[in-house]
């Protein structure tokens, strides 16, 4: 049996060797820096981002949002950079929202960025109606310097239920009807 290969030991040694290797220069690192997610399930809104420590690398940050009610989603994010301090620049490469009621991922698009400005702003093209559920936002990019940071907003505006719409329409109709039926009284003046 001494000539037999111990497969579990061989696989364990290979995994250990891979973990000890330094990351390649172009490697992507997931959830590096100081990611934060201050999303409130009660308010269905909040902020997210990375407070730095991305340190000259390709990165992917993921953020999870638990939505408790259906609504219209508006989301955006931006980095802060200036031409005088290229140490804090981030070039985003993609941003996608998956999960929940989405059949296909929602892609964000760049609204502002290089070469016009070192500050990049990304957002959904238009508000998107989503249902309650768990959603994951994945943002990828390249950071230049330890001071690289970004932040964003994730807000789900409540959509009134059909019964609420019916009550509002009925209320406006009744108020309009009452105004229409109001009689105009003619004022009479008497001179003494």
Automatic annotation (TrEMBL):
Coiled coil: none annotated. Residues 1-25 form the signal peptide. It holds the Pfam family PEP-CTERM. Residues 158-182 form the Ice-binding protein C-terminal domain. InterPro entries: Ice-binding_C (IPR013424). NCBIfam families: PEP_CTERM (TIGR02595), PEP_CTERM_FxDxF (NF038126), PEPxxWA-CTERM (NF035944). This is PEP-CTERM sorting domain-containing protein. It comes from Sphingomonas longa. The lineage of its organism: Bacteria, Pseudomonadati, Pseudomonadota, Alphaproteobacteria, Sphingomonadales.
